[in-house]
Amino acid sequence: MANPGIAGLSGSYSSPSRTRILVEEIVRRASERYQRSAEVFDIGEFGADLGSARRLSDLTGSSRQIIERLVGAEALVVASPVYKGSYTGLFKHLFDLLDPSALAGKPILLAATGGGDRHALVIEHQLRPLFGFFEARTLATGVYASERDFADPGSVSPALAERLDRAIGQLAPYLAASSPENPLSKPIRPLNGAGSNVHSGSSLLR
Predict the structure, then answer these.
(1) How far apart are alpha carbons 151 and 130 in whole angstroms?
(2) What is the full per-residue pLDDT of the chain (206 aa) written as tens digits?
(3) What's the gap between Cα 165 and its chain centre?
(4) ω into residue 183 within 30 of 0, thus cis?
(5) Which of 11, 37, 122, 158 has its CA 20 to 30 A from that of 142?
(6) Rounded Cα gap, residues 6 and 189, in angstroms
(7) Cα–Cα distance, 176 to 1 (Å, whole number)
(8) Maximum pairwise Cα distance, the chain
(9) Pick the CATH number of 6-198 from 3.40.50.360, 3.30.70.141, 3.90.1700.10, 3.30.470.20
(10) N-term to C-term CA, the chain
(11) Residue extents of the structural domains in the chain
(12) pTM of the model
């Protein structure tokens, strides 16, 4: 199976979660705009061996396959819920297992979710330095989403949608557009179609 053009990773262990919905929406919009295949994974899909792994070779089965698909993608969308001012521990542990050169030069759109605006700088203070270590090409615009951005369970807020499209547009130098048209002018469906199967439940966890 060929590696995805765009792969997303949600660092939330909860299901359903706002973080997963955010990643799915970004990946869906990006795959439509650039005509790329897409896949979304979350931390919960890794096996129990992730928590106990001390090196990448300790991962087996589905855990190793997910790593290979993430590393092999043309571009990544990576998001974590904010936990005590930073990303989650298991999210960080996953990237601790990667070789320092594994993500070199790869375009990565950074995102995070939290309860309110006071955690909005987690992208600049925590996520960007992490992927700077890997020499990845993090996009200039990060996407932070708070609870109010998910008030309507059928779609993201207009303000969040605008930020998503601005960030996704910055993938253009790395992903060739599917037509001579300016990819920024291509209309995007506002409904979160990719995440429609995760909206069940009375509330959305991080």
Answers:
(1) 30
(2) 688 999 999 999 887 889 999 999 999 999 999 999 999 999 999 988 899 999 999 998 889 999 999 999 999 999 999 988 889 899 999 999 999 999 999 999 999 999 888 888 999 999 999 999 999 999 999 999 998 898 776 678 889 999 999 999 999 999 974 443 444 444 444 434 434 333 333 344 55
(3) 14
(4) no
(5) 37
(6) 18
(7) 22
(8) 48
(9) 3.40.50.360
(10) 31
(11) 6-198
(12) 0.84
Tokens 């001012």: give the residue.
85
